Amino acid sequence: MFPLSTVLFPTGRLPLHVFEARYRRMVGDCLAGDGRFGVVLIARGSEVGGGDERYAVATEAAVADPRPLPDGRWLLEAAGVRPVRVRRWLGDDPYPRAEVEPLEAAGRAPPEPLVAGAERAVRRARALLSELGAAPALDPGPVAGAGAGADGVVWALCGAAPVAVLDRQRLLEAPGHAERLELLRTLADAVAEDALHLLAGR
């Protein structure tokens, strides 16, 4: 498990610079095995040094494009695979480890109106924030991740949403895509309303 101050969604990619000795060992062990590890949000504490508290829902990730550096550090990407729930922490020696289980089973694709409503809300929030210079607007084409099917679209929308890290964790923890999309629309609408107030006050 790799505790971080950010949330990785399935289908997302997160660049990592691995420099702590324990996580360099973790990367080596992952590459010697199936290449999988967990990315979990820190609830309290720091990314460096240990002693942190973590959330119980994380994202299983795969090591992508690993590049070793001469001094033992690694540059790589964590490629999000699926959400998982921590059943039991196993300790931090030699690095954080946990028993996990899938958060949700693959189900039916979410209703198209839910997907469309969440996408409109995310695009609106990003467009308004772009007027404030706070975030770029989304491209007008299909949402990145659409090639991965309905799951990919939902997770890509979550990744594109301009929301705070704790709200990203709430999206990850949602029990299913329908609930996730409803929450995503609510969060994005709230961001849009805040942006409108700021624009009106200019």
Question: What does the model show?
Answer:
This protein has helices spanning 21-32, 112-131, 149-160, 165-173, 177-200, and strands spanning 2-4, 13-18, 36-44, 53-54, 57-68, 74-91, 97-102. Strands 1, 2, 3, 4, 5, 6 and 7 form a 7-stranded mixed sheet that branches. β5 (57-68) and β6 form a beta hairpin. The chain is of the alpha+beta class and 202 residues long. It has 2 domains: 2-102, Roll (Archaeosine Trna-guanine Transglycosylase, Chain: A, domain 4), CATH 2.30.130; 112-200, no CATH class.
Summary?
The chain is of the alpha+beta class. Helix content is 38%, strand content 28%. A hairpin with a 5-residue loop joins strand 5 and strand 6.
CATH superfamily of the largest domain: LON domain-like
Major β-sheet annotation: 7 strands, mixed
Query: Secondary-structure element sequence?
Result: EEHEEEEEHHHH
- Uncertain stretches: none
Mean pLDDT value: 91
CATH topology of the largest domain: Archaeosine Trna-guanine Transglycosylase, Chain: A, domain 4
The assigned CATH architecture of the largest domain is Roll
What proportion strand?
Answer: 25-35%
Tally of DSSP helical segments: 5
CATH class of the largest domain: Mainly Beta
Q: How many β-strand stretches? A: 7
Tell me the overall shape: globular
The structural domain count equals 2
Instruction: Work out the radius of gyration.
Output: 18 Å
| Protein structure class | alpha+beta
Q: End-to-end distance, in Å? A: 45 Å
Q: Helix proportion of residues, in percent?
A: 25-40%
